[in-house]
Amino acid sequence: MKRLTPYIKPYRKECVIAPLLKCMEALVDLFVPLCMANLVDIGIHQNNEPYIFRIGAILFGLALLGLLLSVIAQWFAARAATGFAAGLRRDTFAHIQSLSFSSADRIGTDTLVTRLTADINQTQTGINMGLRLLLRSPFIVFGAMIMAFRVDVPSAWIFAITIPLLAVVVYGIMWITIPLYKKVQNHLDQVVSGTRENLTGVRVIRAFRLQQKEIQSFEERTSLLTEASEKVGRFSALTNPLTYVIINLATAYLLYKGAIRVNIGSLTQGQVIALVNYMAQILVELIKLANLIVTLTKAAASASRVEGILLTESDMADGKDDFPADTTIRFDHVSFTYHGASEPSLKDISFTAQPGETIGIIGGTGSGKTSLVSLLPRFYDATEGSVTIGGKDIRTLRLSDLRAKAACVLQKALLFRGTIRDNMHFGSPSAADDDIWQALTDAQAADFVKDKPDQLDAPVEQGGRNLSGGQRQRLTIARALVRKPSILILDDSASALDFATDARLRHAIRELPYHPTTFIVSQRVSSIMYADQILVLDDGILAGQGTHEQLLKDCPIYREIYDSQIRKGGEEA
């Protein structure tokens, strides 16, 4: 846990004050039975009303003092716990953002979300409860036994026997249940992971009519969770009956012996009441302590999982070189395999893109088109071969410079909650409104933005839910263009546009004054047929390379795609 220690260091004062105040509260609680003993033995026994009121006032004052100490201690404990969690959550999120795509893929999105939310919350709860109870409960247990010896030594030996018996029961059950709680947590993680996967892919599930299969799978996961929860619940349920049996037997024996000694005059009634109260305090605190240790165990496991994320280093080292002025891009015998994949996604790819050229990339589903363009901004690194810009291997370039110069529009058009202007500022935080409008015009999005009452200040819901698919795609393209990149990657980002809008978009991109090197990934021949160079991919292999006319002559795969989409009369099929 050394990696997490710095997050609690700023709250050293709170970590000392909170337990200290809780111990002071416990000390106040330990004096209450003594006051009750005096109230019975002196006030009630002697019918001394002034004394009764005086002791009553003292008890009321002790209650107020205990409440005040408890509230202040809770404030300090909460401040330390929430501060720790806030710092840890902030740095964990920043660290996740620094991980490469391959590192994030290897860990898994579900795992990262769980670590960032549930695990950090569990750790926060553990720190909060630990600061409040970790010293208070043992203080009460041993303090009550000491006070019992102060009240009456012969009766106090009952405490000396009862406390170890209670400890054996409580911690024996805890020793059994802690591993079971971990299994419950693992099953819960699987249920959450499966639920998230189902919600994310609900359209695919319905399209293939797999609802019943997924319902059955969910029921199997929840059944395992239920069985594990019931098993640990059965053991945990033994805690209260067994402890209460021991406490009640001890209390009954204490009352039996106390009655005899009260009858012979060696013990007072008030002392018996005090001893019974101390026995009850021990019971409550031992159960609290047992629950606390379960909570701390869960918190330690969660903290260990969060620490594992923080200790995960990105497998992509940052370079030190500046982005070159020459933007000639060269793939030299590049192969690429995803982590855990048995087959490479790209095999021995070689080509050169001159500055300002438009490169079209086409191929069937799963042919490696997205994998190819993902290597340019270093979302992934080539497994074999090299990708160079201006003669420099992109692995030697600073990532910040490379990604500032390379704008990528991914297949899924993703917008963020806010306004259209906010989303454009993702591309360039310093972009003026004139630059934004120019980017919207080039992306064929200016018309529908102008139609909105608030125009650039029009609201965008999470994921762009209040926009159509074509509007989302055009806004994501505008977000890339507002950066004025040297390398522009359009990864099937115009699939929702009609052919006329797609043609106007491609024409506008060709006329951009800063002439970026443009990579257009598309399923449509019409979108890439006018490119300076077309790459045809088939199962990760470069099956064809050249202009549209050259490929029609020399590449059967390209010709087959063309024939399937374009009628002989030159119209779209």
Please characterize this protein's 3D structure.
By secondary structure, the protein is α/β, with parallel strands linked by helices. It folds into 2 domains: 2-310, Up-down Bundle (ABC transporter transmembrane region fold); 329-412 and 487-565, Rossmann fold, CATH 3.40.50.300. Helices cover 63% and strands 10% of the residues. The strands form 3 sheets. A 6-stranded mixed sheet has the order 6-9-10-3-11-12. The longest helix is centred in the first third of the chain and has 50 residues, at 49-98. The radius of gyration is 35 Å and the shape is elongated. The two termini are 62 Å apart. The model has no long low-confidence stretch (mean pLDDT 86).
In CATH, the homologous superfamily of the largest domain goes by the name ABC transporter type 1, transmembrane domain
Strand content: 5-15%
Return residue spans where pLDDT drops below 50 for at least 5 consecutive residues. Answer: none
Level-1 CATH class name of the largest domain: Mainly Alpha
What do the pLDDT scores average to? Answer: 86
Tags for this entry?
20 helices, 10% strand, ABC transporter transmembrane region fold, 573 residues, 6-stranded mixed sheet, Rossmann fold
Q: How would the blueprint of this fold be written?
A:
Blueprint: H1 12-44, H2 49-98, H3 101-107, H4 109-133, H5 136-151, H6 153-200, H7 202-207, H8 211-236, H9 239-264, H10 269-310, E1 329-336, E2 346-353, E3 358-363, H11 369-374, E4 384-389, E5 392-393, H12 399-405, E6 406-409, E7 418-419, H13 420-427, H14 433-442, H15 446-450, E8 459-460, H16 469-481, E9 487-491, H17 499-510, E10 517-521, H18 525-528, E11 533-538, E12 541-546, H19 548-554, H20 556-565
Parallel strand pairs: 3-10, 3-11, 6-9, 9-10
Antiparallel strand pairs: 1-2, 1-4, 4-5, 7-8, 11-12
Helix pairs in contact: 1-2, 1-5, 1-10, 2-4, 4-10, 5-6, 5-10, 6-8, 6-9, 6-10, 9-10, 13-16, 14-16, 19-20
